[in-house]
Batch of 2 targets.
Target 1
Amino acid sequence: MNIRFYMTPGSCSTGIHILLEELELVFEVYLVDLMKGDSRTPEYLAMNSKGTIPTLVTNEGEVLTDFLSIAWWLGRSHGKSRLMLADLTSELTALEMMNYAVNVVHGLGYTRVFTPENYLPRGGDPEPVIAQGKQLVTSGLKWLSRRLGSNEYVLGEFSIADGALFYVEFWADRIGLPLPDACAAHYQRMLQRPAVRRVLMEEGYGSLYR
Ligand SMILES: N[C@@H](CCC(=O)N[C@@H](CS)C(=O)NCC(=O)O)C(=O)O
């Protein structure tokens, strides 16, 4: 059975899409249109009761429904790949950075910028929530940048953790928030990678990053 990957172009699933391409895996892509409600259909919810993307169904039929589990599975089940370093310290750093990017910068910050209505009573003013979201993203990216320091990639070499860092940098670029120095350099480095370029092209952002 092929790996099945449920994704939405330009969303957090872009980070996983990059890892799949970097690993040169064969996988089937299923496009989920969040605006149209594709992630709320009974069929989708039967597979992922959270109604979120990314979802990845492994070649053994196991259903993985969050960024960290999918990234970890990719690093582990292709353990001889270069996407996960073997020692415990590297694994802990990868977990720390991915968790911070996905659950703090995205989960607390970007959700306020992209879906302020989820934080407001009906008809409430979205602007203060969006401003708070931007502040959380800015301070979160500063933390990630300091933690990255002079490393070219999160663990020195490219690893599963760079997929998560990339998508929170990509979104900052999309909404015009400046990236702190180390993140800006990491983002540019990522944009030079053939797999990243392929993914952006496939997801409809090719013309932006030629
Ligand atoms: N913590 C989740 C975040 C996933 C997530 O929030 N995805 C967003 C798109 S970037 C989503 O599916 N939103 C639709 C919804 O929550 O209804 C994970 O690790 O996968």
Target 2
Amino acid sequence: MAKLDKDSLGNTFFIAIFLCLVCSIIVSGLAVALKPIQKLNKELDQKKNILRAAGLLASNATESADGKSIEQLFAEFTVRAVNLETGEYVDGVDLQAYDPIKAAGDAAQSISLSSDEDIATLRRRENVSLVYIKTNGAGVEKLVIPVRGYGLWGTLYGYLALDGDLSTISGLGFYSHKETPGLGGEVDNPKWKQRWQGVRLYDDLGDPSVRLVKQRSPSASTAASYEVDALSGATFTTRGVENLVNFWSGELGFGPYIQKLKINGVAQG
Ligand SMILES: Cc1cc2nc3c(=O)[nH]c(=O)nc-3n(C[C@H](O)[C@H](O)[C@H](O)COP(=O)(O)O)c2cc1C
């Protein structure tokens, strides 16, 4: 019987191809097996970000001060799909699977924004987005809306939370951005984020009026109630954040929905 030449070219190729096949099967198998876990982690992360923006979960905490888990806290919210143009709820949307950001990239599910309209540099805006509402006996306690807009280096993605009066900001937090740590990256600084709490979002005419300023107006003035400190050395990020907050709370964002919610309450949006 002919003896196998281990060092032959054919044998080397065979071993290399065999190893490649085994490795690719292991990697693909792991990718498929871990997909559900990745999906769960992504969902958990999204819930954390929504709860943090609403001020119901401290940054880095995994449960509330009174011991409620993320799942328990999030279960107190109702998720609804909203038609941004009409401000009305949309039924029949798979809320788990629907991705507003993906929809914004699809011409059939979004509108193109003119340069005058596009203050947050989005190019397109989805027709349908999601809202997260927490109610109590008296009505809305918190409303959380997804927001995004361009900073200096890229798009900032986050959530804006409003108090039950639907005019006062409860919190703002970003879960993804490309701004420079120490400059625009200070959007993640808990001290700066705290400054959003209690800021007025709409003026008396119902127009979004948040301003990020280097110098605050006198504290007793009306102007001061719409102001948040600008990020020092990060004028572009600051402008981007101001624009994205005002865009998403405005006429082309969730403005029509929020107005309807103020008048009709949660049931009718
Ligand atoms: C390496 C580097 C990174 C920067 N990152 C940011 C940033 O994340 N956000 C921002 O607004 N400006 C950033 N800047 C600064 C801007 O280029 C610009 O100078 C600044 O926004 C002006 O802010 P000021 O008017 O408050 O000084 C960066 C500059 C450099 C050199």
